Amino acid sequence: MLEIRNLHVNYGNVEALHGINLSVQKGEIVTILGANGAGKSTTLNAICGLVKATKGEILFNGEPLHTQRAHTIVSKGIAQSPEGRRVFSTLTVAENMMLGAFTIKDKALISKNEDWIYDLFPRLAERRDQLAGTLSGGEQQMLAIGRALMANPRILLLDEPSLGLAPILVKSIFDTVRTINSHGVTVVLVEQNARAALKLANRGYVMEVGNIVLEDKAASLLNNPDIQKAYLGGG
Ligand code: ATP
């Protein structure tokens, strides 16, 4: 469904991705693990057109994405919930949600998605008229995911959805990602919480300083002694 081939990305003179290859099949949850600065966010941003490939290609169902603008990529079915949530704090929950639907003209579809998302996140439904800036961290994370889902994506890119959340909310966010996936949305998940991410995912990629150094089934990565030592707190 999504195929990244030999992708290079530069920030000025500095190369952040050194030719990565990654693929995602329809229906999968794929996680990308790696230390700070490994290039995980850059990879997600390249997929959704927020940073440009300097070399290589990104294909979605065989069609090039790396030559497209960000809003076109959203309309093709790829939406991101960015790191740090980035909700519009002076707008209400409902207004933030509507912004996520900017590529969709079909009002009935917008309203159907909205109902589904408020079902997924009842707390957002209760707070739909509240300013997003007054939500708790966990609620803002729900809103960022909900807003991305309003674009009706076939692939949802999640950048650190559990960052800064209390353990009970982390579990709830991961459970919700599973539910979203069970509704047919393919998921690419970047996470520092490697153990939880690998328990949820079908496959995982491990990044180190701009390269993919390992790719395997999530269950195999969980049992890999090197991964346990580096990313799972010793197993
Ligand atoms: P983190 O978990 O800390 O976000 P990451 O794996 O997502 O890490 P990236 O944010 O993709 O890593 O960063 C990869 C490299 O690119 C880092 O060396 C980072 O400093 C650099 N980088 C990222 N964004 C920019 C930018 N806008 N300008 C210059 N360099 C950048």
From TrEMBL:
- Gene3D superfamilies attached to this UniProt entry: P-loop containing nucleotide triphosphate hydrolases (3.40.50.300)
Pfam families, alphabetized: ABC_tran
Please list the GO biological process terms of this entry: L-amino acid transport
| SUPFAM superfamilies according to UniProt | P-loop containing nucleoside triphosphate hydrolases (SSF52540)
**Entry superkingdom:** Bacteria
Under the heading InterPro entries, the entry gives: AAA+_ATPase (IPR003593), ABC_branched_ATPase_LivF/BraG (IPR030660), ABC_transporter-like_ATP-bd (IPR003439), ABC_transporter-like_CS (IPR017871), BCAA_Transport_ATP-bd_LivF (IPR052156), P-loop_NTPase (IPR027417)
Q: Which residues form the ABC transporter domain?
A: 2-234
Q: What keywords would UniProt list here? A: Amino-acid transport, ATP-binding, Nucleotide-binding, Transport
A GO MF annotation of the entry reads: ATP binding
Regarding protein family, the annotation reads: Belongs to the ABC transporter superfamily.
Its name, as the record gives it, is ABC transporter ATP-binding protein
Q: Which organism is it from?
A: Desulfovibrio subterraneus
